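ESCALATION

Customer reports they have been waiting on this structure for their group meeting. Please prioritize. Original submission:
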Amino acid sequence: MLDPFATLGIPRAFGVDLRAAEKAHRELSRALHPDKYASAGASERRDALMKAADVNEAWRIVRDPVRRAETLFQLAGVEVGETKEPKPDPELLMEVLEKREALADAKAARDAAKVRALEEEMDAREKKLEEALAKAAAFDTALVVKLGEMRFYRRFLDEASAVLEQLES
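Update from on-call: job pushed to the front of the queue and completed.
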């Protein structure tokens, strides 16, 4: 399994400094650029290409809060995946369902302001959850329920973004 934190040379933590991670990604990408290996042997070029692919994948994982959390759980030995995690809190499910209905109503009414308000509310909830994960001492089975919650918020935000894009076009 790829350890994106080790690949980028950054601390293994949810509350990672994204600017530092991006800088590490850029520096590693520059060092592994194919032009630097043009005169190298085939195996050295292939190794550099594989390392460059790992660096790019590490950056994609680290910059995505859900994938970053999933990776931290996996690195801690906790199995993740929607079928392997505890069932979400029924209250959360009802709340997300109500927000999705409100989003659908706002879309039907072509009310971009309402969509933005829903998006801001859910974004604030996701940020609060990210702060809690950043403060977590360990990514263990007791905390994995937060990952499912984060997925719900992320899906809603992606959906709201698509609705706004559609309304503004």
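Sent to customer with the following note: The radius of gyration is 20 Å.
Escalation resolved.
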